[in-house]
Amino acid sequence: MREAPAGDDEPLEGDIGPAAGAAAGTVARHAVPVSEAAEAAQTLRRFDAEREERRRATNAVAGRIAVAVAALFLAFLTYDSATTAVEARSRGDAWIYPPAVVGGACAVGLVALLTWAWRRRRLGM
Q1: CA 64 remoteness from chain centre
Q2: Spatial contact of 74 and 109, defined as CB atoms under 8 Å apart
Q3: Residue 55: burial class (beta carbons within 10 Å; 0-12, 13-18, 19+)
Q4: What mean pLDDT comes out for the span 2-10?
Q5: For the purposes of burial, counting CB atoms within 10 Å of the CB of 47, is it exposed (0-12), middle (13-18) or buried (19 or more)?
């Protein structure tokens, strides 16, 4: 068998692996000019700022949807508890403890949620 010349062992541009690391001293390094590096860094910062702005907008929309769903849920529970309390009172059953208390707690939660959302919107948060 014939042995390969020593020059064939050098890695090609972009190679990875043991041969690339061993011959690192023989491969010419590509120097990036400072102006290109600064421009690349500025481009990356701009992309990061745009991504952050999109993330904030998406989170704001998701927050509004979550508040709306929670408000609808609490409004439904308040309505359902009030209806149950009225029916229980007309039948002569206990209407204060389970249905009226649950309805009152849901109503307080709904008022607190709407007040928090209104103040947050008014303050521009």
Answers
A1: 14
A2: yes
A3: exposed
A4: 59
A5: exposed
Whole-Å CA distances, 107 to 72, 76, 79, 93, 96: 11, 10, 9, 22, 15
Full-model pTM = 0.64
Q: Identity (one letter) of the amino acid at 98?
A: P
Position 7: which residue type?
G
Q: Give which of 90, 84, 114 is closest to 102, Cα–Cα.
A: 84
Q: How many CA atoms lie within 13 A of 117 on its CB side?
A: 16
Per-residue model confidence as pLDDT tens digits over 13-69: 766 766 555 555 554 555 667 788 889 999 999 999 999 999 999 999 999 999 999
CA 105 to each of CA 27, 28, 33, 63, 108: distance values in angstroms, whole numbers, following the listed order: 74, 74, 66, 23, 5
